[in-house]
Amino acid sequence: MSARHRGANRLIIATSALTLAGAAASVHATGFQIREQSAKALANSLASAAAGAEDVSFMAYNPAALGNIDGTQVAGSLAYIDAEFDMNDGRASPYRVPLNGPDDGTPYDGSKGNSGETALVPSFAVKTQLSDSLDAGLAVYSPYGLSTDYDHDWIGRYQALETDLKVVDIQPTLNFRVTDRLSLAGGLRVQYADATLSNALDLGGLSSPAQPGQHDGFAEVTGDDWGVGYTLGALFQVTDRTRVGVSYRSKVDLTLKGDAEFSATDATSRAILANAQAGGQFTDTSGKADLTTPASLNLGIYHQATDRLALMFNAEWTEWSSFDELVVRFGDNTPNSVTEENWENTWALSTGASYALTGRWTLRGGIGMDESPVPNARHRTPRVPDVDRRWLSAGATFSPTERLSITGAWMHIFFDDGDVNLEDESRGNLSGTYEGTANVFAVSADYRF
């Protein structure tokens, strides 16, 4: 393959980062899912998501939660996510040539690639009771996203540098109280997604003579779009002490549209980039790509075992198989770029308990596990160092009055090790093993008028 041909392929792959907006590594849930919409649910490891219905924030998990809350209520939550992913024993090579690190020529220890970010995830929900049988609610929350950010000289820089995704759902909801025990609900999901992604370009591979890994350029891609989906839910009070919940969130189809920009830092790299641009490569251009955020199904049981003790269980299925390939279309004559992903559907299971210590204090805890949709090491990337995980959570709710509750929650996530074994003619090879650690802290308040 000629250097010019390889350079054109890099242009395609660099711009194809637009479709990787959904591939930013998330912490609490696998894939690129975020479930931190309620501190109460987080403290119980999401075991109360479908059937808990303790306050209006639960409508993000099951819209029929509105039927378990009388009158008017408002709730707000803020989660702080602290995560880090480290690649150990890393190896990389552009065109099968061992990769150096910094451009000053000093030796580079490629055994590690460190990433991870901190993030604040807010959410808000409000509901009112329109009649004895009808409730209306509105929730605003983030169901997907997070970010990874690597140093510009790490060995996997041609695969990924920055990945930043923000997704917001605006969910207006109506709930119908069919009987005193059964509520049915539906709502819209008006979704906005915004992405910024970047990676390095091996301009040294285009120089004459070729110097792979010695001179870098950089590509940054931005894109955003709006989409619409729906959510459905049911909440059934089986007995005075036991209720079950089920909810479904549809997929949302997005077409991210944005720009790709290319740059270089040192004089030699800028000269190589200018020469490539004169030949029609690495020119700033537009692009668009289809991205589907997946459908999910929640099933849950909530049982008031005693006057003080509540037990709960939740199972969530996510249709990650909709993320089977990335297809990028360009504003110029560049051919479409198609990348196979082959993600698999997953299950997340959790169980938890709450204990009313006093009339004002409730203690909470839970455990859970979540499968990764990434099928194997050949599909695990630095943008998505995703693995199976387990978590442990704890928290407490303080109710100073009958109308006001304040909750604090903590969750620790245990990640499995994840091997990476990427082979790419354009970006080179990358292998290693990811290790990760993460903590999530959340606080919320709800007030009933």
Automatic annotation (TrEMBL):
Its main location: membrane. This is Putative outer membrane protein. GO terms for molecular function: long-chain fatty acid transporting porin activity. Keywords: Cell outer membrane, Membrane, Signal, Transmembrane, Transmembrane beta strand. InterPro entries: OMPP1/FadL/TodX. It comes from wastewater metagenome. It is found in: Cell outer membrane. Pfam families: Toluene_X. GO terms for cellular component: cell outer membrane. It is a multi-pass membrane protein. Gene3D superfamilies: Outer membrane protein transport protein (OMPP1/FadL/TodX).
